[in-house]
Amino acid sequence: MHAAGAEPGYAADVSDVQTLSRRPPAPSEKRQATEVAVLSAMEELLGEGTPYAALSVERIATRAGISRTAFYFYFADKRELLMRLASALSDELYREADAWWSGAGDGSQQLTAAVGKIATLYRAHSPLVCAIVEVSAYDEVVGPFWRALVGRFVDASAERIETEIAAGRADAGLGAHATSFSLVWMTERALYQMLVQDAPIRDEELVRALVQIWTSTVYGPQRP
Known about the structure:
The chain is about 75% helix and about 0% strand. The chain is mostly helical.
């Protein structure tokens, strides 16, 4: 029976509206969630000690809770996964380095803070860093990709060095880009070796040495 005053079909119409209001998440949200799961799965497997070369798409997909076939709906291959993870890590590193690039105060103190936080991120993402650096040595796509990411740091550091030269705080004879190229790649290699050589020196000692090299090169040995 219908309630007084209610038209036939009204209850069914309300039910339909309620059902529509509980529609599943938009495809874009589902896709984003699945991509995050797959990316997390790969970093987890790397963190568990599985070498990148030994990782199969099926194993990554299984860890993420999807099928191997579904994996290819989201990613072209495991190399794309590695590059996506490396790009996200690079963005984190870039934000930390910006403490020096965009700072207007004591450059030495800003460098100390930035290099320390960058070293911490390297340590936290050690398996990923090792994988991307190792694969970049032989992969024709990952190699240029990684060098371009590091190139962002070279360019930004060169701009800060130019600013310091213009302000009279750095040696006018410095070649900003060449100096930046040398310092940035030195830091990348040193932090990578910190990870693969089973801590030959303590992290804080390496950070202190890197900061001293940066500051003495850019600001001169007499600068604080």
